[in-house]
């Protein structure tokens, strides 16, 4: 499959450059009959959008989705759903001087090595602008999963630079601009980000996604594993450098007696595995997370080369987030939802619909969620 | 694509259960003319095999590869290469009592939920036995990469339980049964593993893979990113719970000024990115790693249920590694090689062969390897 | 892969309904550096367009292509090329009365059975309007094939109803509205079509496509055969009911001594195979053809049912071609070009670029073209 | 997807050369729980096998299937089913002299052009020996389709050289070695074939496949059309030069009023479309056919070249069918069954299982079968 498509049965193909005429996507494989209106995309696009708070980029993107196909009389028809957003706020002047420069930490150099010819405006195809369409596609997946299976997918930020949550309350996440699960730390975060912006530097972030209500049996063995697909989905997001399922790297230092989640009559005793065993969902809460590197677009100068091999100094004057990972929460959420919907469709293709085959066992009253 | 196949242009399809008649794979897409003999698989299969030392499982697998197709007069023909290994050392009695049991931490429960009907002998399809064929396929990829591009892919263990290397010497890796890059710690590791085996418990491990000689330009943007494919490849290995590229999760707490790898006339100043920017190789050393959870097969009893919902106690009496991650080094190596070869083929499909387009820029004398 | 995408390395994904806001496509995998401008699509879209002569539908489609992505400074960048055409001439009233009707010979019934919910306006997704984007994508493929390999792909009509060409002159094809290769028959065709239109009935057509300059070695064995891909590509066009390669069904009654194309020092002695042996190109002229059924949209009443099972009489009052096959010549041409470009990319992925490996043998002075 | 795999959700990957150690296939995606035993393959392999009568090749293939994986306690587990047949009757001496020769009408020349290095023994990978595994995989598909949906797929020969059936009785097909649907012509066929063999020449054949019981709604729009997939499947069989759905090329000369199948309260009035409209099944009998060229392996000498460009004369002394198309009936049947099962799985992935959504309309008492 071509490089700009994602998914096996629910396929999302995105297109568009940061400062080109438009960005868009084609969502192919959505079942017919799902209600869908343009305004349903607004909420998640807002969540992802820059300009949400003073801690994210001050560029204002007016992301108005147009549904070009696949929806008739307000419901999906089963044919491909094309979504389009015109790029309206592209200030090309901000980026004009970098056409022949390799910004350190950006894809300029590797794209140029690969393609020779590239669109440098705003990062072109390698810009995080592309993730807008992932969020849009994710809206469809989240709605379908919720309606059909009661699955709820939620993303939040679990680390910004060196700060980690001192408490955990999912309800707090959507009440603050940091997608942070502990409201008592908001002042601390504000101060941290203010100092960071002042310094001209940036930090990374960790985003976690949990999905509740996933029935047991989703996922495929070997190369189509649910965790393998999640890893590919999350790692494909700009700036992600690591992915974990369940306990992730903490598993390395753990003991087998601690890590294996015992199964009791009222459900699993724990959830170190993150809801996946052998690549297939267990019916527990799904837990995964992604590491975002600090943005490389800084007003602090960095050394680099231009395409002729000359030494240059790069300073980014455009509008950029000091912590790109913060607004990645809805992006990660979307990718997880897209993977889950794809796996749900694959599951019913091979094993029949839920209710026909699964679940087969004792209810999981306690899910051993960590 | 079906769940048991991997890769776009170099496709590996594996089949077989732990205690079925045989395991095998079909490698489709290998260029013609590559010399290939059955004995070339032996070294890597030995490296992966159980029984290599007293610290890995004492089960002896006589993994003799048979080449069923795709090779004529000792060279590949371009048609699919089928590899077969007969299962000869399957002691089914070891596992007979678990047909109706869900071993904690294993895929028994999730497979049963998904398929209803499953092969429980030795874990069936979910057994790490399947990874033998990944290693076999990886031998082909490693050879082609080395001959065609001089790419060298090497895996080593960089954490066992709580122990991390106190030094780093790649040459040491293949001289000890732990794939450990620091010879001075071997006694410590021996003692650690002996104590672990005595306790009946297990620990996890971290495996790192580096690839040298990867030309700039490999990888695809968006969903076919080199790092995305690596994440999927590594996460699809049994027991893996996390994947990192370059600095991985350490990127979260780092600053942008530190993390962005500056480009100097004699090459990159550092390699926090792990040799990938925007999903495409930079020409630097490729660095990635995987977290392996501790094996769940323990002689220490664990609580669980059987398929009827009865409470049971599970004790594993079979032969199992106290640290499965150790012999995963060659598996990770194989998966990275398969991803790289696939991407190399994809690259030359779209952008022409190396030499035609790439590299375009100043040589990278110093690669900024960490 | 999802149903609305086509191709392995050059992937075309189309979207859009006949009377929705727009139709479009995403062409993924095109090599970088190809010059491409919106006006280059005009010629082939005109060739396909209705309204070209009084023998095709009188509906005027103003098909103005907008390039949304993948092109920078007039050249492709290697990233996905999205093409968009707004639907401007949709007279929904023409079709309003058929929302609950199954037009005989149309996809109304089968779509309704499959999806339940469908867009009936102008046939919705099943309208031949979709083929506009195939033609657009084909423009890219034809240009690349011509520039890179000197391959020229040409389609013409070789049967309209019961009339077959009495002579063969490729140069005549583009000089008449029937894509007919024998100018002396134009009067006869005019009279035939006039009588047909008067009668209210329709006829089928046969379209042939030839490709010159295809190097030997394109195509893959077994399921990726060049002829297999051509068959899929042509059969996927609306109204096609048959596909032939080379002599096609005439091969059944032929003798082996006649059919096998002998190879002489100056090339093949004949070309019954149509330039493909074992699924791989021979370097001869590629020959294939498609059978188009007569359009089912007629002003002569047809019996049918509505979705409630009531008997109805269907009369099509909209604007429709009495022979849809005529303007299918550019569509078939486009599909053949897309298949060839995809195979060219696949070939160089596995076997290296042309010049590196092929051709290996005596030049084919005479190609034995039939 | 790689070239030796077929299908989207039910994927068949074949491997093996005519005179290599073995041929085999991996069937991935079969639902769990289907009863399957090695002896179930015997009947169809016999039907396809050479040596069935004196009118097919006298080579005796002992095609004993071994199930290597995917089946436990006699039922499929949902994991990949690997099937293997050892090549036992390979008389390599028969073919030794052709290693450097291009047999006219064979894939020798095109394979050599593509790969440079090829296995010439018995045609290597391009031998029809490969189709054995298609038949084997088809056994699984036919059984699943029959059990799950009551679908019955049957192939027969509808033309041998210039002879066409003078009557049609499906029950006759399996009672004669020609898969001929009219018993009264058997003497004529025997004489025809005897004369043909005496002459040393060969003829082509037409094979038709019908499928009864296919529910409405199978197939996908645009590029995943049921007819498009059938065309690819049939054209991918060795020696096929044409494919028709329903009336096929006869549609060209037909009128729209005749061709469009009217829908009456008791079902369709006719079936010119072959049970497919807009790429999706209508619930009528599915009808398709394939044209097989005459075999090129003849004892009558043919002119050709060797790899050095020398003129040679090729005479085939091996054992070959004078009409390869005859025993292609089970191969075509298998391919149609594989396509249908794949589409059935795709259908239930997107639209839910049969019974949940379809059928929605008046029963089709009369199906208008031609």
From TrEMBL, chains A, B, C, D:
Keyword Lyase part of the UniProt annotation: yes
Encoding gene per record: aroC
Record's protein name: Chorismate synthase
Binding annotation for FMN: 125-127, 238-239, 278, 293-297, 319
Enzyme class at the top of the EC tree: lyase
Binding note for cofactor: Reduced FMN (FMNH(2)).
Domain of life of the organism encoding this protein: Bacteria
Gene Ontology molecular function, alphabetical: chorismate synthase activity
Co-factor requirement: FMNH2
UniProt keyword list: Amino-acid biosynthesis, Aromatic amino acid biosynthesis, FAD, Flavoprotein, FMN, Lyase, NADP
Pathway: Metabolic intermediate biosynthesis; chorismate biosynthesis; chorismate from D-erythrose 4-phosphate and phosphoenolpyruvate: step 7/7
Protein family: Belongs to the chorismate synthase family.
């Amino acid at each position: 499959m071509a490089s700009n498509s994602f998914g096996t049965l629910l396929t999302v193909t995105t297109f568009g450059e940061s400062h080109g005429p438009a960005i868009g996507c084609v969502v192919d494989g959505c079942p017919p009959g799902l209600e869908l209106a343009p305004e349903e995309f607004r909420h998640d696009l807002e969540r992802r959008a820059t300009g949400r708070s003073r801690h994210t980029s001050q560029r204002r993107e007016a992301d108005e989705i147009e549904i070009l196909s696949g929806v008739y009389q307000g419901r999906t028809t089963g044919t491909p759903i094309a979504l389009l957003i015109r790029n309206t706020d592209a200030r090309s002047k901000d980026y004009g001087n970098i056409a022949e420069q390799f910004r350190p930490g950006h894809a300029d150099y590797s794209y140029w090595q690969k393609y020779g010819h590239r669109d440098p405006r705003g990062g072109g195809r390698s810009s995080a602008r592309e993730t807008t369409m992932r969020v849009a596609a994710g809206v469809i997946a989240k709605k379908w999963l919720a309606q059909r299976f009661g699955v709820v997918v939620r993303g939040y930020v679990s680390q910004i630079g060196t700060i980690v949550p001192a408490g955990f309350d999912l309800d707090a996440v959507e009440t603050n601009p940091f997608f942070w699960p502990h409201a008592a730390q908001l002042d601390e975060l504000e101060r941290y980000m203010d100092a960071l912006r002042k310094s001209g530097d940036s930090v990374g972030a960790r985003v976690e996604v949990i999905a509740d209500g996933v029935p047991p049996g989703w996922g495929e063995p070997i190369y189509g594993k649910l965790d393998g697909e999640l890893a590919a989905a999350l790692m494909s997001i700009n700036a992600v450098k690591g992915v974990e399922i369940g306990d992730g790297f903490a598993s390395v230092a753990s003991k087998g007696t601690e890590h294996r989640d015992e199964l009791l009559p009222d459900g699993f005793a724990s959830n170190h595995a993150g809801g996946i065993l052998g690549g297939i969902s267990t019916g527990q809460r799904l837990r995964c997370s992604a590491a975002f590197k600090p943005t490389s677009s800084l007003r602090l100068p960095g050394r680099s080369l231009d395409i002729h091999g000359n030494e240059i100094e790069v300073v980014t004057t455009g509008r950029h987030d000091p912590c790109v990972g913060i607004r990645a929460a809805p992006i990660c959420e979307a990718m997880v939802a897209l993977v889950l919907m794809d796996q749900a469709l694959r599951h019913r293709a091979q094993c029949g619909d839920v209710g026909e085959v699964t679940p087969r066992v004792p209810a999981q009253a306690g899910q051993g969620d960590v």
